[in-house]
């Protein structure tokens, strides 16, 4: 069946309307996102960019932009609890904080944290920020506003609170777009675009723009949080725009191809802006040493979805030797090390003895604060156990954020004395990955073709040990990630053979199944290529 050219023209016009609103009564503003480091700059990738030398003064929160939904009713109890405490004795501050964090129920935990907001042992506003981070994401601006307006805060805490507040507003954007009930024809579709969808999208795009512009004035953790949420909001908008069903009278294969092809081209600038903002946020989180954070998980997942084939989470599939759980945790500070998010551990736990293996093992469950990294990197007499925990944290930071400096530091930490099987596996992996892309922008833009030197892993795979199968599997996986664009069937057959070998050597049944699946996928690809 031949497609009517007029239908294709109509659909291309509709795609332009959906993506840019130029045909729907006015264009949306460009999001004011910061730029990420250049993809070809390893040095730039190690540090968040565009930090002003003298940050602008941070005022109280601006009015909520039109288009940002109101905070949900679930925020009311959090607002009511704010600044309800009467202070605390300095020697009881950390035990009370630990008791609050040990509460599993969110309301009970927040009630105890709110009682500590005026405790002079903590920097003013820091406990409020912690309440926001541990509470509902959408409530941040409601919790922060009274504290920003009434209390004298340090520039760092002020920036953190404002970033969390702006991040909360961004998190509420692009959540419930107008819907058009099917079935519908072209006339109804166009009417819906102009009367309902276009005004909604313009408001959402402008709200992202205005909120991102405010967040560009921030520094540190606050800037990272707001940038990440701005990127997520823009990428959600792309996802919404991709989800339109076509009118029934324009729905045939050639027309659909024309529509979606044009739409993708028109969405490309917004995709890039969302990516750039998310990468700035991720680099900020990496600088702080954060390993565990739901926002990072969301950003990496959405980057992979919006940019099909993205390699931002490609290293998640690597298999590491199981770490020894922290045992014998006794002191309040050790317990807090395992419960406080990394940013707050950096602010409150700098007196921790991170050279003690148990302390370090619980701390790195959430991340590796900069004070711990600096202290451990400069210590020449670490025990092998502490050195392994340190190297594992460094490696996981590199795995999560693609910073070459993390892999290099992990390699340096392990190259002195530790000869355990787990250390050898980490060292072999770090040796390969120091030759990789070196940054998240490079990984996304240039691919992973440099991950081909797996000789250190192959050497481990040849020697009988508890990590023999893990080394074989990881070598195969890295070569799979480095597959050339013009790879022939012989390449995939060799990959299949590697995964089959790993399956034989692996002990864990789940790992064996994974290797078997990878081998089958490689053989299927070889057949398809052939």
Characterise the protein shown here.
This protein is mainly α. The protein has a domain at 315-529. Helix content is 61%, strand content 0%. It has 24 helices and no strands. The chain has helices at residues 5-20, 42-45, 76-81, 93-101, 106-114, 126-134, 140-150, 155-172, 186-215, 220-242, 253-288, 294-306, 332-339, 342-348, 357-363, 370-377, 384-401, 404-414, 421-433, 440-446, 455-461, 468-481, 489-505, 509-529. α5 (106-114) packs antiparallel against α6, α6 (126-134) packs parallel to α8 and α11 packs antiparallel against α12 (294-306). It is flat and about 65 Å long. The two termini are 32 Å apart. Mean pLDDT is 85; it is low at 1-9, 21-29 and 40-57.
């Amino acid at each position: 069946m031949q497609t009517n050219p007029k239908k294709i023209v109509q659909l291309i016009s509709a795609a332009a309307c959906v993506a840019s609103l130029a045909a729907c009564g006015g264009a949306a503003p460009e999001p004011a996102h910061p730029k990420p480091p250049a993809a070809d700059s390893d040095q730039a990738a190690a540090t968040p960019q565009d930090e002003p030398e003298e940050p602008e003064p941070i005022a109280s929160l601006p009015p909520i932009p039109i288009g940002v939904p109101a905070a949900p009713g679930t925020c009311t109890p959090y607002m009511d609890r704010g600044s309800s405490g009467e202070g605390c004795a300095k020697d009881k501050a950390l035990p009370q904080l630990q008791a609050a964090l040990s509460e599993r129920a969110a309301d009970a935990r927040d009630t105890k944290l709110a009682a500590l907001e005026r405790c002079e042992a903590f920097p003013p506003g820091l406990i409020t920020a912690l309440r926001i981070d541990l509470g509902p994401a959408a409530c941040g601006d409601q919790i922060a506003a009274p504290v920003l307006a009434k209390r004298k805060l340090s520039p760092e805490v002020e920036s953190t609170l404002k970033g969390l507040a702006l991040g909360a507003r961004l998190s509420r954007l692009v959540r419930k777009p107008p819907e058009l009930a099917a079935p519908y024809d072209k006339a109804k579709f166009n009417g819906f675009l102009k009367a309902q969808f276009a005004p909604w999208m313009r408001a959402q795009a402008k709200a992202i723009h205005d909120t991102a512009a405010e967040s560009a004035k921030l520094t540190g953790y606050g800037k990272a949080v707001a940038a990440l949420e701005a990127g997520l909001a823009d990428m959600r908008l792309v996802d919404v725009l991709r989800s339109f069903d076509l009118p029934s009278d324009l729905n045939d294969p050639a027309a659909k191809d024309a529509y979606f092809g044009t739409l993708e081209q028109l969405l490309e600038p917004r995709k890039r802006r969302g990516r750039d903002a998310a990468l700035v946020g991720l680099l900020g989180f990496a600088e702080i040493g954060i390993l565990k954070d739901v926002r990072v998980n969301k950003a990496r997942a959405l980057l992979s979805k919006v940019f099909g084939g993205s390699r931002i989470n490609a290293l998640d599939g690597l298999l590491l030797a199981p770490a020894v759980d922290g045992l014998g945790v006794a002191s309040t500070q050790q317990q807090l090390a395992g419960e406080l998010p990394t940013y707050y551990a950096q602010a409150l736990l700098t007196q921790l003895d991170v050279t003690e293996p148990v302390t370090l093992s619980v701390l790195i469950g959430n991340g590796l604060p900069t004070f711990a990294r600096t202290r451990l990197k400069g210590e020449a007499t670490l025990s092998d156990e502490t050195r392994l925990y340190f190297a594992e944290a460094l490696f996981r930071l590199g795995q999560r954020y693609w910073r070459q400096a993390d892999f290099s530091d992990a390699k340096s930490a392990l190259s002195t004395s530790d000869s355990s099987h787990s250390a050898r596996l980490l060292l072999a992996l770090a040796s390969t990955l120091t030759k990789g892309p070196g940054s998240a922008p490079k990984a996304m833009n240039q691919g992973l073709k440099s991950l081909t030197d797996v000789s250190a892993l192959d050497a481990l795979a040849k020697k009988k040990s508890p990590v023999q199968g893990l080394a074989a599997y990881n070598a195969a996986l890295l070569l799979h990630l480095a597959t050339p664009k013009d790879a022939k069937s012989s390449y995939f057959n060799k990959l299949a053979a590697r995964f089959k070998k790993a399956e034989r050597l692996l002990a864990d049944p789940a790992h064996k199944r994974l290797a078997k699946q990878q081998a089958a996928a490689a053989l299927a690809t070889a057949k398809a290529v052939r």
